[in-house]
Automatic annotation (TrEMBL):
It holds the Pfam family DAGAT. CDD domains: LPLAT_MGAT-like. GO terms for biological process: glycerol metabolic process; triglyceride biosynthetic process. This is diacylglycerol O-acyltransferase. It comes from Craspedostauros australis. Its EC number is 2.3.1.20. InterPro entries: DAGAT. Belongs to the diacylglycerol acyltransferase family.
Length: 178
């Protein structure tokens, strides 16, 4: 998140780990330089929906990463972390107010705990699933705004690839795409 890059020392730590700001401007510049990006499509909103035993992905209305990929001809690779939602126990206390804060100010305040009621995550299995790349057409002009129909088409392909990846490799968990 952009705010994290404004905090001294945190910014330097993130930059040393090759993290970049989540803004479209920075992502576009990175793609223009030929770099690959890993985008957490659900962002902070997804952290508000964790539920043990269920894999929840915020993706239905997230198309910015698809537009970005199509603008620069960057292939889409479906990646999914099955079991991540079991790292912490979360609570729904004041969830409507917390969701309002998240939607209006981009501040996620999940109420959670791990082992021994600390921030240490529970020791649970997690599998990172990486699907086959979805080839995207090269744009006539790098950085040009893609056709909305093309964005919808590739968004549907990405969601289908994610569902297929989950159903093929994860048998004991439910996938919910919001």
């Amino acid at each position: 998140a952009t705010v994290m890059f404004k905090i001294p020392l945190v910014r330097e730590l993130f930059l040393n780990m090759s993290y970049i700001d989540a803004s479209r401007k920075i992502a576009s510049a990175s793609l223009k330089e030929g770099r690959s990006l890993f985008v957490c499509t659900g962002g902070e909103e997804e952290s508000m929906y964790t539920e043990m035993g269920k894999d929840i992905v915020v993706l239905k209305n997230r198309k910015g990463f698809i537009r970005l990929a199509l603008s620069y001809g960057a292939d889409l690779v479906p990646v999914f972390g099955a079991g991540i939602t079991d790292f912490y126990r979360t609570y729904g206390f004041m969830s409507k107010q917390r969701m309002w804060l998240q939607k209006n100010f981009g501040v996620a305040l999940p109420i959670f705990h791990g082992r021994w009621f600390t921030p240490l995550p529970y020791r649970v299995p997690m599998n990172i699933l990486i699907g086959e790349p979805i080839k995207v057409p090269k744009p006539a002009e790098i950085g040009a705004k893609p056709d909305p129909k093309l964005v919808d088409e590739y968004h549907a392909k990405y969601m289908e690839a994610l569902k297929l990846l989950h159903s093929k490799h994860v048998k004991d968990r439910v996938l919910e795409i919001r």
